[in-house]
């Protein structure tokens, strides 16, 4: 088991990025870490992977081999992908698992410099070196960034089968599908259990627009019943009010198909837009869920 005790990290200017973080990681118990941009997630991951040192505190039980994918994978290299993977394998004292590239759908040329690879293919090389080294600890910072839809689905399956301590950050929502994952949040420099399943709709509603509409309608009735000063007839009206008409919601993101998969909805992809038909009562919950997964709202009409 890897344990982090009282990790503090302070840079030259500003408040501490980490303020006494305690964390435990063990095989078979994946951890998904959430937090706003600039909250210190990448800093914490670098410390746990052994690539950076804390200002104070300590990390105990770090295994000899760590599979680490940084948020900015060094893809601008003159080294070809196969040579890069062999080089890292020799440093770690393990064999090369080039089959992971095929599994992830690598379509680049293995013999050309990595600097010529697309973002998606470079990310697949980064994942292959992190997941194919027999690591006792796997630390992945936004591993779905730049992946196509098929590779993104494959990665969920690969992470489900990781036989190591696993820590992942993710803004796409796909990490929520890793079975048995523990969800934590980093806020104000402190890690705590994440209780943000209240996305405005239930988790099952996020996967089903019909269930979301029903849940939102029921929630409106409950809120009305709890509101002071409401007459019994007003409460009954709120409980029996019809679901509003369908709205057309247009979301923008880098991976619209991936966002649709994360939300559990079916929509039309138009460039960087995801166009959805959403029951009026389910709009607020869906918009909140989309924003939490890195999307932005273009219009609701």
UniProtKB/TrEMBL annotation:
It comes from the Bacteria. Residues 202-231 have a biased composition (Low complexity). Pfam families: ABC_tran. Residues 2-213 form the ABC transporter domain. Residues 197-237 are annotated as: Disordered. Keywords: ATP-binding, Nucleotide-binding, Transport. Signal peptide: none annotated. The keyword Nucleotide-binding applies. This is ABC transporter domain-containing protein. It comes from Pseudonocardia ailaonensis.
